[in-house]
């Protein structure tokens, strides 16, 4: 993995080669390794160390862009020449904004050397212990154990330079029998925070307790959603609701509703790259400092996130949430977190007269973005709760429900939160939740 000084030197070389009015250089990459297992045996082990350079130029307000994975002088020159040549075939940008000047960033510790250094032998030993436990329980284990590190730098011809190093690791395991399955997963920037044996045991218990599931009728139920299930809600709010472009274009369920009550009093959602549980970036893909933004406070819609373009249209300041430009998505929050409550998963179950415990969802998709109606299916451990106790497994169910409705019916929120669903340099920090009158629209085949 290249270091910050090398990234700065390469960026300055590229900028020096460019005859354009403005030039931006984004360098990213690093080592990554993954060991995959299935049927209680390792099936694949891969490792790579990649680097990518994207040069974006503006000449006479015309945009050109090129990419290379070679850092020698000839390849850098060809990338610049290609980007400049592209400008001749583009129309001038009507919404052209000059690239930003140098910025200041708060420090963010995201790199743990031990995480990056974890080798295939250590991953294999860990998987071996989990697979042995599965075999002894007459289950089949499958999953992935990955780790790596990355460096991201952004530089432009106005003198801006930003760089950040990070590490990450993830362990995901599914255990299955002929009629049941259990699942567990965790991600962290620090390998010492990843307890793979506990994750394996959790998946094993779920699989054992899910045997011989019974069908129940679809309908509205009280649900106890474990952390991973709750993360789906925040992910789709990120993409569909909290972005400045969707908000300004009237495509967000928050359009025209800032200052209004949209969720229950116990719901507060913010975007904060500096949360200790998160895997954050201190700047966005324009090089602007990433701000912590309260999006929903005690149920009231407070804000959406902006890049410089949407901020100018809205008459506000950028919150530092740009994606790589050009793009059609606009800014989105990558580090969503929901404020914790004072409950626990055990309390949620014990206070439920009749309901359903959900481990996580899959194949979740948006039906209606303006009402934030989602549909998806339960998976790898779905259980019926009666009189405060789990009484047995049930066949998986499809849900069709509005997040706006669901987050108005949250009875309890757990005190503990976990980092879940890493994506695009970010992820979600979520508690577990107990929700009333959650709609299941049908029963699946298994």
* Main β-sheet description: 6 strands, antiparallel
Helix-strand string:
HEEEHHHEEEHEHHEEEHEHEEEEHEE
Q: What ranges have pLDDT less than 50 throughout 5 or more consecutive residues?
A: none
Shape: globular
- Number of domain modules: 2
Radius of gyration: 24 Å
Find the structural class using helix and strand composition. Answer: alpha+beta
Lateral arrangement of strands in the main beta sheet: 3-2-1-4-5-6
Model description:
The chain is an alpha+beta fold. The chain contains ten helices and 17 strands. It has two domains: 201 residues, PmbA/TldD fold (2-Layer Sandwich), CATH 3.30.2290.10; 234 residues, no CATH class. The strands form two sheets. A six-stranded antiparallel β-sheet has the order 3-2-1-4-5-6. A five-stranded mixed beta barrel has the order 7-12-13-15-17. Strand 1 and strand 2 form a beta hairpin. The chain is globular and about 70 Å long.
Task: Please render the helix and strand layout as text.
Blueprint: H1 4-17, E1 22-38, E2 41-59, E3 62-68, H2 73-87, H3 113-117, H4 120-136, E4 140-156, E5 161-176, E6 181-188, H5 196-209, E7 219-225, H6 227-240, H7 244-248, E8 269-271, E9 293-297, E10 300-301, H8 308-314, E11 335-338, H9 345-350, E12 354-368, E13 373-386, E14 389-393, E15 397-402, H10 403-406, E16 410-423, E17 426-443
Parallel strand pairs: 7-12, 11-17
Antiparallel strand pairs: 1-2, 1-4, 2-3, 4-5, 5-6, 7-17, 8-9, 8-11, 9-10, 12-13, 13-14, 13-15, 15-17, 16-17
Helix pairs in contact: 4-5
């Amino acid at each position: 993995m290249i270091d910050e000084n090398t990234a700065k030197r390469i960026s300055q070389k590229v900028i020096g080669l460019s005859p354009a009015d403005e030039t931006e250089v984004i360098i990213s990459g690093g080592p990554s390794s993954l060991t995959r297992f299935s049927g209680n045996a390792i099936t694949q082990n891969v490792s790579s160390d990649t680097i990518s350079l994207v040069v974006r130029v503006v000449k006479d307000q015309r945009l050109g862009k090129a990419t290379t994975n070679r850092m020698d002088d000839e390849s850098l020159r060809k990338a610049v020449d290609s980007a400049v040549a592209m400008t001749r075939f583009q129309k001038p940008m009507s919404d052209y904004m000059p690239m930003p000047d140098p910025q200041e960033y708060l420090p963010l510790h995201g790199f743990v050397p031990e995480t990056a250094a974890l080798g295939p032998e250590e991953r294999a030993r860990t998987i071996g212990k989990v697979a042995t436990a599965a075999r002894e329980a007459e289950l089949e284990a499958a999953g992935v154990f990955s780790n790596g590190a990355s460096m991201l730098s952004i530089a432009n011809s106005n003198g801006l330079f930003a760089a950040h190093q990070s590490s990450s690791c993830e362990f995901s395991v599914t255990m299955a029998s002929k009629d049941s399955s259990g699942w567990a997963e965790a991600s962290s920037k620090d390998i010492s925070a990843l307890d793979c044996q506990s994750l394996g045991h959790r998946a094993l218990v779920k699989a054992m307790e899910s045997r011989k599931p019974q069908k129940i009728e679809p309908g509205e139920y009280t649900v106890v959603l474990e952390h991973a299930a709750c993360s789906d809600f925040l992910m789709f709010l990120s993409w569909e609701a909290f972005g400045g472009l969707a908000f300004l274009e009237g495509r967000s369920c928050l359009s025209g509703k800032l200052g209004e009550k949209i969720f229950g009093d116990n719901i507060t959602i913010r975007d904060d790259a500096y949360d200790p549980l998160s895997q954050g970036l201190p700047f966005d893909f324009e090089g602007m400092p990433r701000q912590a933004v309260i999006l929903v406070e005690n149920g009231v819609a407070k804000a959406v996130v902006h890049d410089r373009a949407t901020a100018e249209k809205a008459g506000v300041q950028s919150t530092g949430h740009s994606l790589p430009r050009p793009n059609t998505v606009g800014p989105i929050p990558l580090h969503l977190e929901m404020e914790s409550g004072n409950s626990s998963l055990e309390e949620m179950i014990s206070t439920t007269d009749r309901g359903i415990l959900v481990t996580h969802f899959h194949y979740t998709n948006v039906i209606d973005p303006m009402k934030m109606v989602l549909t998806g299916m339960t998976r790898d451990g779905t259980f019926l709760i009666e009189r405060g106790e789990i009484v047995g497994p049930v066949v998986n169910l499809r849900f069709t429900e509005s997040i706006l409705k669901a987050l108005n019916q949250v009875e309890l929120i757990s005190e503990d939160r976990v980092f879940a669903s890493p994506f695009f340099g970010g992820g979600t920090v979520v508690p577990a939740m107990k929700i009333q009158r959650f709609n299941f629209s049908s029963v699946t085949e298994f």
